[in-house]
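Lecture notes, continued. The same structure-token format from the folding unit now serves as the input rather than the output. Read the line below as a description of shape only.
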């Protein structure tokens, strides 16, 4: 199912730009070109909730004052009987729990957050990982940004998390396709089969190839034992593997179901049992509090071994957090992979679509955000007399969350198509045992992602100051900074630091500690137009140094408003402004492409427009944006 919102009304675009287009002039100096794997992944070995503490296998790559996402990939309890109920989720437990936090301190293998944890987690059973956001002022995607592939051994990977204070510009894709739960692996069976005692079970040991009674299942939110690794039963959102003989794998799933695998419809020969891989099961998001990787598709059963009939991997998880996304008709994708095509064997099921969370204030130009299901593998019967096998099941579409209303962009959460059967012999059953398509996924708007705002007391204890709070508030054209410490006797001095255009920190005020004073303040008398970023550097009497959270304050230039006339215009406009200082004027189309720019002085300025088509344009002076209609 596709939501195509290509036609953007001018007044809608104007409202969005007026509200959110606040980019300072100096932003280009802080734009970072990004590509490849931008995140770091850390296996969690223990959670200590009372201290908002996360112990990880390695802290390499982690830095304080950086956002992280804590997400549990697995840990559900499922029915493990060899019956049609196999793989039914009896309890999600902590599987899918996640939250966003900010690192306060790192000591040894322990990561402490500024906020108390919202959720419970089970690191040992649940493959819990900590993923550090890639953080930028503005980011320019110049080549594909990718997720590291899911690694079930370490329990890490498959997540992209990007934060930008201002813009993320797409000049290449953000790509988490097929980086999620693994599809069932292809393994060739010998040719043994039985019509009298067919391999009708839901679980088998997939590594046993004498014969392989059930091909490998796709991976889901519950791990299975080696004795449950094969067979048509689907483990939660993973697709079931095709059974002996040559049945196809089922599609993986997310919040909606995958498609069933195609079956054996041979006739007049041996090995005719129709025992196809079951579809991956839909999962509950627990009202949006849980997120998942797409389930892997089940493998097709194969004895000829003429092609790789593995199931497709599921899609990954993508989190985009920015003031503005400049789409440039690029793509953000977490789709499932396609199942393997077969030649005279069962085919692989498609992977389920993954999860995408979009926390973006303003969208400029079109972007496609998709989490489609992978297609089931096609099945070519190869002209074998009396041998016919349906294609693999399609993976379900994934889940796309928007923290606001549905923006005027393209979204796609289409379920994967069932594999197509070809080369069918006339002697086969009249009714083919075709695979099923995966269900379409879900688009959820006005979503609130999991993020704790309750300060962690232990973080204050770790800071040299025992810092209770640090605030930054605009007071007219000044910024007032104030903070409170629980341990004034331990403080040598505080430094208020401000981030500059080169993305480094300058000290703007030094305040000495006083044994009798718990509350302190300082003032920034010269804040910059646009966003200003502050942090508190605390030096203890033992010379230990720690930092507060970063605070952000927006300053709009006094007298920045202006008027345009005539409007609509044809070839010339006059700008009237009250500001006594020169300003930078830009005229752009609604995609953000600059049509004209110049410096203008105070008072009125007459602008001769370049030759441009009729339509809606945007006039920007410093940070103020207004609509201009050309007729």
């Amino acid at each position: 199912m596709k939501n195509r919102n290509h036609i953007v009304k001018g007044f809608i675009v104007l409202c969005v730009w007026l509200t959110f287009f606040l980019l300072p002039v100096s932003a280009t100096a802080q734009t970072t070109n990004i590509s490849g794997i931008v995140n770091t992944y850390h296996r969690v070995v223990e959670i200590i909730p009372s201290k908002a503490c996360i112990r990880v296998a390695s802290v390499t790559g982690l830095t304080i004052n950086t956002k992280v996402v804590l997400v549990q990939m697995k840990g559900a309890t499922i029915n493990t009987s060899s019956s049609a109920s196999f793989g039914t989720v009896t309890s999600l437990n902590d599987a899918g729990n996640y939250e966003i936090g900010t690192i306060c301190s790192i000591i040894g293998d322990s990561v402490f957050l500024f906020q108390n944890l919202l959720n419970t987690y089970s690191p040992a059973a649940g493959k819990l990982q900590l993923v550090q956001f890639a953080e930028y002022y503005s980011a320019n995607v110049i080549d594909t940004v990718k997720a590291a592939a899911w690694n079930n051994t370490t329990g890490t990977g498959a997540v992209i998390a990007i934060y930008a204070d201002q813009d993320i510009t797409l000049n290449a894709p953000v790509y988490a396709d097929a980086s999620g739960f693994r599809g069932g692996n292809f393994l060739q069976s010998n040719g043994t089969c039985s019509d009298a005692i067919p391999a009708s079970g839901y679980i088998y040991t997939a590594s046993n190839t004498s014969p392989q009674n059930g091909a490998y299942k796709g991976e889901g939110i519950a791990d299975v034992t080696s004795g449950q690794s094969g067979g048509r039963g689907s483990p939660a959102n993973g697709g079931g593997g095709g059974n002996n003989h040559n049945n196809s794998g089922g599609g993986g799933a997310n919040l909606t179901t995958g498609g069933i695998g195609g079956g054996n419809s041979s006739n007049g020969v041996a090995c005719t049992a129709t025992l196809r891989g079951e579809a991956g099961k839909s999962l509950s998001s627990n009202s949006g509090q849980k997120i998942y990787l797409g389930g892997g598709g089940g493998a097709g059963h194969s004895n000829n071994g003429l092609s790789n009939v593995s199931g497709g991997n599921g899609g990954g998880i993508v989190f985009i957090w920015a003031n503005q996304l400049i789409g440039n008709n690029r793509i953000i994708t977490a789709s499932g992979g396609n199942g393997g095509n077969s030649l005279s064997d069962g085919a692989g099921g498609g992977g389920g679509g993954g999860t995408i969370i979009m926390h973006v204030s303003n969208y400029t130009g079109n972007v496609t955000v998709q989490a489609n299901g992978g297609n089931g593998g096609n099945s070519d019967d190869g002209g074998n007399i009396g041998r016919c096998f349906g294609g693999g099941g399609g993976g379900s579409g994934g889940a796309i969350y928007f923290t606001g209303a549905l923006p005027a962009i393209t979204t796609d959460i289409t379920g994967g198509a069932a594999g197509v059967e070809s080369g069918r012999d006339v002697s086969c059953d009249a009714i083919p045992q075709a695979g099923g398509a995966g269900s379409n996924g879900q688009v959820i708007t006005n979503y609130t992602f999991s993020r704790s705002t309750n300060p962690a007391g232990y973080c204050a204890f770790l800071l040299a100051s025992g810092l209770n709070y640090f605030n930054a508030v605009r007071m007219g054209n000044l910024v007032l900074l104030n903070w409170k410490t629980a341990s004034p006797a331990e403080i040598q001095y505080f430094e208020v630091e401000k981030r500059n255009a080169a993305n480094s920190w300058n000290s703007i005020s030094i305040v000495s500690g006083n044994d009798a004073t718990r509350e302190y303040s300082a003032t920034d008398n010269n804040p910059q137009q646009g966003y200003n970023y502050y942090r508190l550097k605390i030096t203890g009497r033992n010379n230990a140094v720690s930092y507060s959270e970063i605070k952000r304050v927006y300053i709009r230039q006094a007298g920045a408003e202006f008027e345009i006339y005539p409007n609509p215009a044809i070839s010339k406009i006059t700008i009237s402004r009250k500001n006594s200082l020169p300003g930078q004027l830009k005229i752009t189309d609604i995609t953000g492409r600059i049509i004209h720019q110049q410096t203008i002085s105070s008072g009125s300025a007459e602008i001769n427009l370049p030759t441009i088509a009729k339509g809606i344009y945007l006039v920007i002076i410093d940070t103020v944006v207004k609509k201009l209609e050309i007729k």
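Point for the exam: The domain at 562-630 is CATH 2.60.40.3080 (Immunoglobulin-like).
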